Amino acid sequence: MDDIRKEINIMSSCRHKNVVSYFVSFIDDSDLWLVMPLLGAGSLSDVIRVKAKSGIKDEILIATILKQTIEGL
User: Fold this and answer.
1) What are the backbone angles phi and psi of residue 61, rounded to the nearest 5°?
2) Count of Cβ atoms closer than 10 Å to residue 4 Cβ
3) Which of 4, 19, 26, 68 makes a 20 to 30 Å CA pair with 34?
4) What pLDDT shows up at residue 39?
5) 20: closest CA among 34, 4, 31, 6?
């Protein structure tokens, strides 16, 4: 539980356009709920799975994804 609390503290302090926002968390019975914005398209993995079934071939697109990921880190 301490590790989860640490992670929630890190998430709540992170404010970057490339990182999903965290609003609040609560426990209901034995379930932990995290309230975050709904990302309708899903994760990057979901988008790639649907739009680029055989992988991403465009090096500029790969570079853009990596750049945005690094900026979020």
Assistant:
1) -65, -45
2) 11
3) 68
4) 87
5) 34
Each residue of 40-67: pLDDT tens digit? 888 889 989 998 989 899 999 999 999 9
Indicate where the chain has its CATH 3.30.200.20 domain(s).
Answer: 1-37
**32 in Cβ contact with 4 (< 8 Å):** yes
The CATH number that domain 1-37 falls under is 3.30.200.20
Residue 50 has a CB neighbour count (10 Å cut-off) of: 10
Distance, in Å, from the CA atom of 43 to the CA atom of 50, rounded to the nearest integer, reads 11
The pTM for the full model equals 0.67
Q: Extract the runs of DSSP E, i.e. beta strands, from 1-73.
A: 24-28, 31-35
